[in-house]
Amino acid sequence: MVVGNFTSAFCGAVLVIRVLLPCASLSAAPKPGAADANQATAIEGPLKIDIQAAILLAMENNRSLAVERMNPQVSRTFEKEELAVFDPALSAGVSARRTVGDRLSRAGFGTESQIGDSVTGSVALSKFFATGTTLALEGSTSYTDSSLYSDTFTANRLGVTVTQALLQGMDIRANLARVNQAKLDTLISEYELRGFAEILLEEVESKFWDYALAGKQIEIYTNSLSLAEKQMAEAQERIKIGRLAETELAAAQAEVALRRENLINARSNLAKERLNLLRLLNPRPTINWGRDIILEYQTTLPSIELDDVEQHVRLALKMRPDLNYARLAIRRGDLEVVKTKNGLLPRMDAFITFGKSGYADTFRNASSNVDSRSYDVTCGLMFEYPPANQAARARYSRAVISRSQLLEALENLIQLVQVDVRSAYIEVTRAREQITATAATRNFQEEKLRAETEKFRVGKSTSLLVAQAQRDLVASQIAETQAVANYLKALVALYRLEGSLLQRRGIAAPGAEAVALDSQKPRDY
Question: What global pTM score does this model have?
Fold first, then answer.
Protein backbone atom coordinates (compact mmCIF):
# COMPACT_ATOMS: atom_id res chain seq x y z
CA MET A 1 0.00 0.00 0.00
CA VAL A 2 1.31 3.45 -0.87
CA VAL A 3 0.18 6.54 0.93
CA GLY A 4 -0.28 9.68 -1.15
CA ASN A 5 -0.99 10.54 -4.76
CA PHE A 6 1.98 9.23 -6.66
CA THR A 7 0.68 10.65 -9.92
CA SER A 8 1.37 14.19 -8.76
CA ALA A 9 4.92 13.69 -7.53
CA PHE A 10 7.22 12.24 -4.90
CA CYS A 11 8.50 14.01 -1.83
CA GLY A 12 12.09 15.22 -1.83
CA ALA A 13 12.16 17.58 1.13
CA VAL A 14 15.49 18.51 2.67
CA LEU A 15 16.34 16.22 5.56
CA VAL A 16 17.42 17.51 8.95
CA ILE A 17 18.30 14.26 10.72
CA ARG A 18 21.82 14.16 12.12
CA VAL A 19 23.33 10.72 12.56
CA LEU A 20 26.76 9.97 13.95
CA LEU A 21 28.54 6.92 12.51
CA PRO A 22 28.50 4.57 14.22
CA CYS A 23 25.16 5.66 15.65
CA ALA A 24 23.28 4.32 18.58
CA SER A 25 20.46 1.91 17.99
CA LEU A 26 16.97 3.32 18.33
CA SER A 27 15.25 -0.05 18.16
CA ALA A 28 13.36 -1.36 21.19
CA ALA A 29 14.62 -4.38 23.07
CA PRO A 30 12.72 -7.65 22.55
CA LYS A 31 9.87 -8.17 24.96
CA PRO A 32 10.55 -10.71 27.69
CA GLY A 33 8.81 -14.00 27.10
CA ALA A 34 8.33 -13.56 23.35
CA ALA A 35 8.31 -16.83 21.47
CA ASP A 36 10.83 -15.64 18.91
CA ALA A 37 12.00 -12.48 17.16
CA ASN A 38 9.93 -13.07 14.04
CA GLN A 39 6.73 -13.41 16.06
CA ALA A 40 7.54 -10.23 17.97
CA THR A 41 8.12 -8.39 14.74
CA ALA A 42 4.90 -9.65 13.19
CA ILE A 43 2.93 -8.31 16.16
CA GLU A 44 4.21 -4.82 15.37
CA GLY A 45 2.27 -4.79 12.12
CA PRO A 46 3.32 -3.02 8.88
CA LEU A 47 6.46 -0.93 8.86
CA LYS A 48 5.40 2.69 8.30
CA ILE A 49 8.31 4.87 7.22
CA ASP A 50 9.03 8.08 5.40
CA ILE A 51 12.29 8.86 3.61
CA GLN A 52 13.93 10.28 6.75
CA ALA A 53 13.07 7.21 8.82
CA ALA A 54 14.34 4.93 6.05
CA ILE A 55 17.69 6.72 6.03
CA LEU A 56 17.98 6.56 9.81
CA LEU A 57 17.16 2.86 9.92
CA ALA A 58 19.72 2.05 7.24
CA MET A 59 22.47 4.10 8.88
CA GLU A 60 21.88 2.33 12.19
CA ASN A 61 21.09 -1.24 11.19
CA ASN A 62 22.45 -2.06 7.73
CA ARG A 63 24.70 -5.12 7.95
CA SER A 64 27.10 -4.07 5.19
CA LEU A 65 27.65 -0.69 6.82
CA ALA A 66 28.30 -2.38 10.17
CA VAL A 67 31.07 -4.39 8.51
CA GLU A 68 32.61 -1.29 6.91
CA ARG A 69 32.59 0.62 10.22
CA MET A 70 35.11 -1.87 11.63
CA ASN A 71 37.79 -1.08 9.05
CA PRO A 72 39.01 2.18 10.69
CA GLN A 73 39.12 0.36 14.04
CA VAL A 74 41.31 -2.32 12.50
CA SER A 75 43.57 0.32 10.92
CA ARG A 76 44.11 2.06 14.26
CA THR A 77 45.60 -1.14 15.68
CA PHE A 78 48.34 -0.89 13.03
CA GLU A 79 49.11 2.64 14.25
CA LYS A 80 49.71 1.33 17.76
CA GLU A 81 51.79 -1.54 16.38
CA GLU A 82 54.10 0.82 14.51
CA LEU A 83 54.38 3.22 17.45
CA ALA A 84 55.50 0.30 19.62
CA VAL A 85 58.93 0.55 17.95
CA PHE A 86 59.61 3.62 20.11
CA ASP A 87 58.39 2.06 23.37
CA PRO A 88 60.98 1.27 26.06
CA ALA A 89 62.03 -2.37 26.10
CA LEU A 90 62.93 -4.16 29.32
CA SER A 91 65.04 -7.30 29.20
CA ALA A 92 66.50 -9.50 31.92
CA GLY A 93 68.38 -12.75 32.13
CA VAL A 94 69.99 -15.07 34.60
CA SER A 95 72.36 -17.97 34.05
CA ALA A 96 74.24 -20.46 36.19
CA ARG A 97 77.48 -22.28 35.31
CA ARG A 98 79.49 -25.09 36.93
CA THR A 99 82.92 -26.29 35.86
CA VAL A 100 84.57 -29.48 37.10
CA GLY A 101 88.18 -30.37 36.28
CA ASP A 102 91.59 -31.47 37.57
CA ARG A 103 94.63 -29.37 38.35
CA LEU A 104 98.00 -29.87 39.97
CA SER A 105 97.84 -30.05 43.70
CA ARG A 106 99.22 -27.19 45.70
CA ALA A 107 101.90 -29.45 47.14
CA GLY A 108 103.12 -30.17 43.63
CA PHE A 109 102.39 -33.88 43.80
CA GLY A 110 99.57 -35.36 41.67
CA THR A 111 96.31 -33.67 40.86
CA GLU A 112 93.26 -32.60 42.76
CA SER A 113 89.64 -31.98 41.77
CA GLN A 114 88.46 -28.41 41.09
CA ILE A 115 84.81 -27.25 41.12
CA GLY A 116 83.67 -23.77 40.12
CA ASP A 117 80.14 -22.37 40.39
CA SER A 118 79.03 -19.01 39.02
CA VAL A 119 75.69 -17.24 38.73
CA THR A 120 75.19 -14.20 36.50
CA GLY A 121 72.15 -11.94 36.31
CA SER A 122 71.50 -8.92 34.13
CA VAL A 123 68.76 -6.42 33.45
CA ALA A 124 68.59 -3.78 30.72
CA LEU A 125 66.24 -0.98 29.70
CA SER A 126 66.53 0.33 26.14
CA LYS A 127 64.67 2.84 24.00
CA PHE A 128 64.90 3.77 20.34
CA PHE A 129 64.26 7.40 19.36
CA ALA A 130 63.15 8.81 16.02
CA THR A 131 66.48 10.61 15.72
CA GLY A 132 68.16 7.24 15.14
CA THR A 133 69.46 7.13 18.70
CA THR A 134 69.33 4.04 20.90
CA LEU A 135 69.79 4.49 24.63
CA ALA A 136 70.35 1.45 26.86
CA LEU A 137 70.76 1.26 30.64
CA GLU A 138 72.32 -1.98 31.85
CA GLY A 139 72.97 -3.56 35.20
CA SER A 140 74.58 -6.92 35.93
CA THR A 141 75.86 -8.93 38.83
CA SER A 142 77.88 -12.15 39.01
CA TYR A 143 78.64 -14.49 41.89
CA THR A 144 81.53 -16.96 41.74
CA ASP A 145 82.38 -19.74 44.16
CA SER A 146 85.38 -21.89 43.29
CA SER A 147 87.30 -24.53 45.23
CA LEU A 148 90.43 -22.85 43.96
CA TYR A 149 89.88 -20.03 46.41
CA SER A 150 88.89 -20.00 50.02
CA ASP A 151 86.23 -17.30 49.62
CA THR A 152 83.51 -16.24 47.22
CA PHE A 153 83.68 -13.42 44.69
CA THR A 154 80.92 -10.97 43.63
CA ALA A 155 81.03 -8.38 40.83
CA ASN A 156 78.37 -5.73 40.13
CA ARG A 157 78.32 -3.42 37.13
CA LEU A 158 76.16 -0.48 35.99
CA GLY A 159 76.47 0.92 32.49
CA VAL A 160 74.89 3.11 29.86
CA THR A 161 75.29 2.72 26.11
CA VAL A 162 74.38 5.30 23.48
CA THR A 163 74.28 4.30 19.81
CA GLN A 164 73.70 6.92 17.12
CA ALA A 165 73.06 6.24 13.45
CA LEU A 166 75.20 8.52 11.28
CA LEU A 167 73.96 7.60 7.81
CA GLN A 168 71.17 5.03 7.34
CA GLY A 169 68.59 5.44 10.10
CA MET A 170 69.50 9.02 10.97
CA ASP A 171 66.64 10.72 9.02
CA ILE A 172 63.71 11.40 11.37
CA ARG A 173 61.22 11.34 8.46
CA ALA A 174 62.43 7.89 7.42
CA ASN A 175 62.22 6.57 10.97
CA LEU A 176 58.67 7.88 11.36
CA ALA A 177 57.57 6.81 7.87
CA ARG A 178 55.91 3.54 8.91
CA VAL A 179 54.05 5.27 11.75
CA ASN A 180 52.80 8.03 9.47
CA GLN A 181 51.86 5.52 6.79
CA ALA A 182 49.73 3.67 9.35
CA LYS A 183 48.02 6.96 10.25
CA LEU A 184 47.34 7.62 6.57
CA ASP A 185 45.93 4.10 6.20
CA THR A 186 43.47 4.91 8.98
CA LEU A 187 42.42 8.12 7.23
CA ILE A 188 42.06 6.25 3.95
CA SER A 189 39.79 3.72 5.64
CA GLU A 190 37.64 6.59 6.98
CA TYR A 191 37.24 8.08 3.50
CA GLU A 192 36.41 4.62 2.17
CA LEU A 193 33.78 4.32 4.91
CA ARG A 194 32.32 7.67 3.89
CA GLY A 195 32.20 6.62 0.26
CA PHE A 196 30.45 3.38 1.16
CA ALA A 197 27.93 5.23 3.35
CA GLU A 198 27.08 7.58 0.46
CA ILE A 199 26.57 4.64 -1.90
CA LEU A 200 24.35 2.95 0.68
CA LEU A 201 22.35 6.14 1.22
CA GLU A 202 21.81 6.53 -2.53
CA GLU A 203 20.67 2.92 -2.74
CA VAL A 204 18.23 3.37 0.16
CA GLU A 205 16.62 6.44 -1.38
CA SER A 206 16.49 4.82 -4.82
CA LYS A 207 14.87 1.67 -3.43
CA PHE A 208 12.41 3.82 -1.48
CA TRP A 209 11.22 5.46 -4.70
CA ASP A 210 11.36 2.18 -6.64
CA TYR A 211 9.06 0.62 -4.07
CA ALA A 212 6.74 3.60 -4.26
CA LEU A 213 6.78 3.38 -8.06
CA ALA A 214 5.97 -0.34 -7.93
CA GLY A 215 3.00 0.42 -5.69
CA LYS A 216 1.77 3.13 -8.04
CA GLN A 217 2.12 0.79 -11.00
CA ILE A 218 -0.19 -1.69 -9.26
CA GLU A 219 -2.70 1.11 -8.78
CA ILE A 220 -2.48 2.06 -12.46
CA TYR A 221 -2.81 -1.53 -13.67
CA THR A 222 -5.70 -2.20 -11.28
CA ASN A 223 -7.58 0.83 -12.61
CA SER A 224 -6.79 -0.13 -16.18
CA LEU A 225 -8.04 -3.69 -15.54
CA SER A 226 -11.29 -2.32 -14.13
CA LEU A 227 -11.65 -0.09 -17.16
CA ALA A 228 -10.96 -2.98 -19.55
CA GLU A 229 -13.47 -5.21 -17.75
CA LYS A 230 -16.04 -2.44 -17.95
CA GLN A 231 -15.30 -2.05 -21.64
CA MET A 232 -15.71 -5.81 -22.18
CA ALA A 233 -19.01 -5.88 -20.28
CA GLU A 234 -20.26 -3.01 -22.39
CA ALA A 235 -19.22 -4.81 -25.57
CA GLN A 236 -21.02 -7.98 -24.46
CA GLU A 237 -24.18 -5.99 -23.74
CA ARG A 238 -24.12 -4.32 -27.13
CA ILE A 239 -23.54 -7.68 -28.83
CA LYS A 240 -26.64 -9.06 -27.08
CA ILE A 241 -28.83 -6.27 -28.39
CA GLY A 242 -27.31 -6.60 -31.85
CA ARG A 243 -25.60 -3.23 -32.00
CA LEU A 244 -22.07 -4.72 -32.17
CA ALA A 245 -20.54 -7.62 -34.08
CA GLU A 246 -19.32 -10.61 -32.04
CA THR A 247 -15.85 -10.21 -33.55
CA GLU A 248 -15.40 -7.03 -31.48
CA LEU A 249 -15.51 -9.07 -28.26
CA ALA A 250 -12.15 -10.73 -28.90
CA ALA A 251 -10.25 -7.43 -28.71
CA ALA A 252 -11.92 -6.54 -25.39
CA GLN A 253 -11.18 -9.98 -23.94
CA ALA A 254 -7.53 -9.80 -25.05
CA GLU A 255 -7.20 -6.40 -23.40
CA VAL A 256 -8.56 -7.76 -20.10
CA ALA A 257 -6.11 -10.67 -20.24
CA LEU A 258 -3.23 -8.28 -20.94
CA ARG A 259 -4.20 -6.04 -18.01
CA ARG A 260 -4.28 -9.06 -15.68
CA GLU A 261 -0.86 -10.13 -16.92
CA ASN A 262 0.54 -6.65 -16.24
CA LEU A 263 -1.05 -6.62 -12.79
CA ILE A 264 0.51 -10.00 -11.89
CA ASN A 265 3.95 -8.77 -12.98
CA ALA A 266 3.50 -5.52 -11.04
CA ARG A 267 2.62 -7.38 -7.85
CA SER A 268 5.64 -9.62 -8.25
CA ASN A 269 7.88 -6.58 -8.79
CA LEU A 270 6.45 -4.92 -5.66
CA ALA A 271 7.18 -8.03 -3.57
CA LYS A 272 10.81 -8.11 -4.76
CA GLU A 273 11.27 -4.38 -4.14
CA ARG A 274 9.89 -4.87 -0.63
CA LEU A 275 12.49 -7.58 0.08
CA ASN A 276 15.32 -5.38 -1.20
CA LEU A 277 14.16 -2.45 0.92
CA LEU A 278 13.81 -4.64 4.03
CA ARG A 279 17.37 -5.90 3.60
CA LEU A 280 18.74 -2.36 3.35
CA LEU A 281 16.76 -1.11 6.36
CA ASN A 282 17.27 -4.29 8.43
CA PRO A 283 14.63 -3.35 11.06
CA ARG A 284 15.43 -4.82 14.45
CA PRO A 285 15.33 -7.11 16.33
CA THR A 286 15.35 -9.16 13.14
CA ILE A 287 13.86 -9.02 9.66
CA ASN A 288 10.41 -10.50 9.21
CA TRP A 289 10.48 -11.10 5.47
CA GLY A 290 6.70 -11.21 5.31
CA ARG A 291 6.25 -7.79 6.92
CA ASP A 292 4.52 -5.19 4.78
CA ILE A 293 5.94 -1.69 4.25
CA ILE A 294 3.82 1.43 4.05
CA LEU A 295 5.57 4.46 2.58
CA GLU A 296 4.68 7.96 3.65
CA TYR A 297 5.70 10.92 1.49
CA GLN A 298 4.46 14.31 0.43
CA THR A 299 2.83 14.84 -2.94
CA THR A 300 4.78 17.84 -4.19
CA LEU A 301 8.13 17.87 -5.92
CA PRO A 302 10.96 19.63 -4.06
CA SER A 303 11.63 23.12 -5.28
CA ILE A 304 15.31 22.78 -6.10
CA GLU A 305 17.34 25.15 -8.23
CA LEU A 306 20.66 23.61 -9.22
CA ASP A 307 23.80 25.71 -9.11
CA ASP A 308 25.95 26.17 -12.16
CA VAL A 309 27.53 22.87 -13.21
CA GLU A 310 31.03 24.26 -12.56
CA GLN A 311 30.17 24.77 -8.90
CA HIS A 312 29.07 21.14 -8.63
CA VAL A 313 32.33 20.07 -10.28
CA ARG A 314 34.42 22.16 -7.89
CA LEU A 315 32.55 20.69 -4.94
CA ALA A 316 33.16 17.18 -6.27
CA LEU A 317 36.91 17.81 -6.68
CA LYS A 318 36.95 18.85 -3.04
CA MET A 319 34.54 16.40 -1.40
CA ARG A 320 34.58 13.15 -3.39
CA PRO A 321 35.84 10.40 -1.00
CA ASP A 322 37.61 8.47 -3.76
CA LEU A 323 39.56 11.59 -4.79
CA ASN A 324 40.53 12.29 -1.20
CA TYR A 325 41.79 8.82 -0.43
CA ALA A 326 43.65 8.85 -3.77
CA ARG A 327 45.44 11.98 -2.56
CA LEU A 328 46.17 10.25 0.74
CA ALA A 329 47.61 7.31 -1.19
CA ILE A 330 49.99 9.73 -2.92
CA ARG A 331 51.09 11.13 0.43
CA ARG A 332 51.65 7.56 1.56
CA GLY A 333 53.75 7.05 -1.56
CA ASP A 334 55.79 10.13 -0.62
CA LEU A 335 56.63 8.49 2.68
CA GLU A 336 57.56 5.26 0.91
CA VAL A 337 60.04 7.20 -1.25
CA VAL A 338 61.59 8.77 1.87
CA LYS A 339 61.79 5.40 3.61
CA THR A 340 63.35 3.51 0.71
CA LYS A 341 65.77 6.33 -0.11
CA ASN A 342 67.13 5.99 3.42
CA GLY A 343 67.90 2.35 2.62
CA LEU A 344 70.34 3.42 -0.13
CA LEU A 345 72.75 4.82 2.47
CA PRO A 346 75.48 2.74 4.13
CA ARG A 347 74.90 1.80 7.73
CA MET A 348 77.36 3.49 10.06
CA ASP A 349 76.66 3.76 13.79
CA ALA A 350 78.72 5.42 16.49
CA PHE A 351 78.50 4.04 20.02
CA ILE A 352 79.83 4.85 23.43
CA THR A 353 79.51 2.82 26.60
CA PHE A 354 80.25 4.11 30.08
CA GLY A 355 80.21 1.79 33.05
CA LYS A 356 81.28 1.39 36.65
CA SER A 357 81.96 -1.88 38.44
CA GLY A 358 82.33 -2.97 42.04
CA TYR A 359 84.05 -6.09 43.37
CA ALA A 360 83.76 -7.61 46.84
CA ASP A 361 83.09 -10.85 48.64
CA THR A 362 79.39 -9.99 49.10
CA PHE A 363 76.71 -8.45 46.91
CA ARG A 364 76.19 -5.54 49.28
CA ASN A 365 79.87 -4.59 49.44
CA ALA A 366 80.20 -4.94 45.67
CA SER A 367 77.27 -2.55 45.17
CA SER A 368 78.93 -0.02 47.49
CA ASN A 369 82.17 -0.22 45.54
CA VAL A 370 80.37 0.85 42.35
CA ASP A 371 80.63 4.42 43.68
CA SER A 372 84.43 4.26 43.53
CA ARG A 373 86.46 6.39 41.16
CA SER A 374 87.09 3.53 38.77
CA TYR A 375 85.12 3.34 35.50
CA ASP A 376 85.35 2.02 31.97
CA VAL A 377 84.58 3.70 28.66
CA THR A 378 84.22 2.04 25.28
CA CYS A 379 83.55 3.85 22.01
CA GLY A 380 83.73 2.97 18.37
CA LEU A 381 82.14 2.85 14.93
CA MET A 382 80.25 0.10 13.12
CA PHE A 383 80.02 0.11 9.32
CA GLU A 384 77.98 -2.10 7.03
CA TYR A 385 77.23 -1.78 3.32
CA PRO A 386 76.59 -4.41 0.68
CA PRO A 387 78.64 -3.52 -2.43
CA ALA A 388 75.79 -3.86 -4.95
CA ASN A 389 72.89 -2.98 -2.61
CA GLN A 390 70.49 -4.16 -5.29
CA ALA A 391 67.56 -4.86 -2.97
CA ALA A 392 67.55 -1.30 -1.60
CA ARG A 393 67.90 0.18 -5.09
CA ALA A 394 64.99 -1.92 -6.35
CA ARG A 395 62.76 -0.85 -3.44
CA TYR A 396 63.59 2.81 -4.03
CA SER A 397 62.94 2.56 -7.78
CA ARG A 398 59.63 0.80 -7.13
CA ALA A 399 58.57 3.52 -4.67
CA VAL A 400 59.40 6.32 -7.15
CA ILE A 401 57.58 4.59 -10.02
CA SER A 402 54.58 3.76 -7.85
CA ARG A 403 54.28 7.37 -6.73
CA SER A 404 54.35 8.55 -10.35
CA GLN A 405 51.70 5.96 -11.14
CA LEU A 406 49.52 7.25 -8.31
CA LEU A 407 49.84 10.81 -9.62
CA GLU A 408 48.75 9.70 -13.09
CA ALA A 409 45.88 7.71 -11.59
CA LEU A 410 44.75 10.79 -9.67
CA GLU A 411 44.71 12.90 -12.84
CA ASN A 412 42.70 10.20 -14.58
CA LEU A 413 40.28 10.02 -11.65
CA ILE A 414 39.82 13.81 -11.77
CA GLN A 415 38.75 13.51 -15.40
CA LEU A 416 36.34 10.70 -14.54
CA VAL A 417 34.84 12.80 -11.74
CA GLN A 418 34.34 15.67 -14.17
CA VAL A 419 32.49 13.37 -16.56
CA ASP A 420 30.43 11.80 -13.74
CA VAL A 421 29.23 15.11 -12.31
CA ARG A 422 28.57 16.75 -15.67
CA SER A 423 26.67 13.67 -16.89
CA ALA A 424 24.64 13.52 -13.67
CA TYR A 425 23.85 17.23 -14.01
CA ILE A 426 22.58 16.64 -17.55
CA GLU A 427 20.51 13.69 -16.34
CA VAL A 428 18.85 15.79 -13.60
CA THR A 429 17.97 18.47 -16.15
CA ARG A 430 16.61 15.87 -18.58
CA ALA A 431 14.59 14.09 -15.88
CA ARG A 432 13.07 17.39 -14.75
CA GLU A 433 12.00 18.25 -18.29
CA GLN A 434 10.65 14.74 -18.79
CA ILE A 435 8.18 15.25 -15.94
CA THR A 436 6.49 18.08 -17.83
CA ALA A 437 6.67 16.23 -21.13
CA THR A 438 5.21 12.98 -19.78
CA ALA A 439 2.45 14.87 -17.96
CA ALA A 440 1.46 16.52 -21.23
CA THR A 441 1.55 13.15 -23.01
CA ARG A 442 -0.65 11.62 -20.33
CA ASN A 443 -3.20 14.45 -20.71
CA PHE A 444 -3.31 13.93 -24.47
CA GLN A 445 -3.70 10.17 -24.05
CA GLU A 446 -6.59 10.70 -21.61
CA GLU A 447 -8.29 12.93 -24.16
CA LYS A 448 -7.58 10.42 -26.92
CA LEU A 449 -9.14 7.58 -24.90
CA ARG A 450 -12.18 9.71 -24.07
CA ALA A 451 -12.68 10.58 -27.72
CA GLU A 452 -12.16 6.99 -28.87
CA THR A 453 -14.63 5.71 -26.27
CA GLU A 454 -17.28 8.21 -27.38
CA LYS A 455 -16.76 7.20 -30.99
CA PHE A 456 -17.09 3.54 -30.03
CA ARG A 457 -20.37 4.20 -28.24
CA VAL A 458 -21.86 5.81 -31.35
CA GLY A 459 -20.51 3.05 -33.57
CA LYS A 460 -17.73 5.03 -35.24
CA SER A 461 -14.82 3.13 -33.68
CA THR A 462 -13.83 -0.45 -32.80
CA SER A 463 -12.91 -2.30 -29.66
CA LEU A 464 -9.37 -2.69 -30.99
CA LEU A 465 -8.88 1.05 -31.30
CA VAL A 466 -10.31 1.64 -27.83
CA ALA A 467 -7.99 -1.03 -26.42
CA GLN A 468 -5.04 0.60 -28.18
CA ALA A 469 -5.98 3.96 -26.64
CA GLN A 470 -6.23 2.33 -23.23
CA ARG A 471 -2.75 0.79 -23.61
CA ASP A 472 -1.33 4.14 -24.69
CA LEU A 473 -2.86 5.82 -21.65
CA VAL A 474 -1.46 3.20 -19.26
CA ALA A 475 1.96 3.54 -20.86
CA SER A 476 1.83 7.33 -20.47
CA GLN A 477 0.78 7.05 -16.82
CA ILE A 478 3.65 4.64 -16.11
CA ALA A 479 6.06 6.94 -17.97
CA GLU A 480 4.90 9.94 -15.93
CA THR A 481 5.39 8.23 -12.58
CA GLN A 482 8.70 6.78 -13.80
CA ALA A 483 9.86 10.29 -14.81
CA VAL A 484 9.15 11.61 -11.31
CA ALA A 485 11.02 8.70 -9.72
CA ASN A 486 13.91 9.12 -12.16
CA TYR A 487 14.18 12.81 -11.31
CA LEU A 488 14.37 12.17 -7.58
CA LYS A 489 16.92 9.39 -8.07
CA ALA A 490 18.94 11.56 -10.46
CA LEU A 491 19.15 14.27 -7.79
CA VAL A 492 20.44 11.75 -5.26
CA ALA A 493 22.95 10.41 -7.78
CA LEU A 494 24.24 13.94 -8.49
CA TYR A 495 24.70 14.66 -4.79
CA ARG A 496 26.49 11.34 -4.30
CA LEU A 497 28.79 11.89 -7.28
CA GLU A 498 29.77 15.33 -5.99
CA GLY A 499 30.41 13.90 -2.51
CA SER A 500 27.83 16.00 -0.67
CA LEU A 501 25.00 13.50 -0.17
CA LEU A 502 25.70 12.76 3.51
CA GLN A 503 26.11 16.45 4.29
CA ARG A 504 22.88 17.35 2.48
CA ARG A 505 21.04 14.70 4.47
CA GLY A 506 22.45 15.94 7.78
CA ILE A 507 24.54 12.83 8.43
CA ALA A 508 27.92 13.23 10.12
CA ALA A 509 30.57 10.71 9.05
CA PRO A 510 34.38 10.47 9.06
CA GLY A 511 36.23 11.80 6.05
CA ALA A 512 34.35 15.07 5.62
CA GLU A 513 37.56 17.13 5.28
CA ALA A 514 39.18 17.81 1.93
CA VAL A 515 42.75 16.52 1.54
CA ALA A 516 45.42 18.94 0.36
CA LEU A 517 48.18 17.58 -1.85
CA ASP A 518 51.63 18.94 -2.60
CA SER A 519 52.56 16.94 -5.68
CA GLN A 520 55.88 18.68 -6.25
CA LYS A 521 57.96 16.79 -3.73
CA PRO A 522 57.63 14.02 -1.16
CA ARG A 523 56.40 15.29 2.16
CA ASP A 524 55.93 14.01 5.67
CA TYR A 525 52.47 13.46 7.03
Answer: 0.79
